[in-house]
Amino acid sequence: MNIQNILVVCVGNICRSPMAEYFLKQEFPQFNIESAGISGLIGHTADEKAQLSMQLLGINMQPHIARKLNAELIKKADLILVMSQNQQKHLEQIWPFAKGKTFRLGHWQSKNVPDPYKHDQVVFDETCQLIQNYIADWKKYI
Question: b vs e for 91-108, b when ≥16 Cβ sit within 10 Å of the residue's Cβ?
Answer without folding.
Answer: bbeebeebeebbebbbbe
